[in-house]
Design a protein that fits this description.
The chain is mainly beta. 0% of the residues lie in helices and 61% in strands. Strands 1, 2, 3, 4, 5, 6 and 7 form a seven-stranded antiparallel beta sheet that branches.
C-alpha cells in the first residue's frame, strides 16, 4: 500500500485533502471521519469537488460493509471545478457505514487526487 495523505484544510464545515499514490492499493484508508475537527457521533461527509491526475483507474469509496464507489477516476480531470455547480455526492453507503473514505486503484498507479468534502452530519459544530 502506497498512499500519502496531506490535510489541506479541516474547518468547521469542510475538509480538503491531497492524496498521492505510487502503487496498487485496495481499500486504503485516506480519511478517518471520526478524527476530523468537530467529529461527534456517526460522522458523515459528502464529496463536493475533486481534481486528479492518476495513472490507472482509481475509485474513491465510502466505507461500509459493502463499500460504495463515490467517484471513479482515470487519467486527469475535475469534478465540480470552477463554477460548474454540480451537487455534492452524498455518502449513500448502507449497512456498516463508518463515514470513512477509502481508495482502490489499479496496478502501478502514480498520481495525485485533491478531494473536498462537506461535513453533513455527526459533527458537533454543525447545529
Amino acid at each position: 500500500m502506497a498512499v500519502v495523505v496531506q490535510t489541506l484544510r479541516d474547518s468547521d464545515f469542510e475538509t480538503v485533502i491531497k492524496v498521492t499514490t505510487t502503487s496498487t492499493n485496495s481499500a486504503a484508508s485516506i480519511l478517518d471521519a471520526s478524527a476530523l475537527t468537530g467529529a461527534s457521533t456517526d460522522p458523515r461527509l459528502s464529496l463536493v469537488a475533486c481534481s486528479w491526475s492518476v495513472g490507472s483507474q482509481t475509485d474513491i469509496l465510502f466505507d461500509a460493509t459493502s463499500d460504495v464507489v463515490a467517484l471513479s477516476l482515470n487519467g486527469s480531470g475535475h469534478y465540480n471545478a470552477s463554477a460548474v455547480g454540480f451537487p455534492a455526492i452524498p455518502n449513500n453507503a448502507g449497512s456498516g457505514v463508518s463515514g470513512d473514505i477509502l481508495l482502490t486503484n489499479g496496478s502501478a498507479s502514480v498520481g495525485f487526487i485533491i478531494l473536498k468534502f462537506r461535513k453533513t452530519s455527526g459533527f458537533d459544530n454543525l447545529s
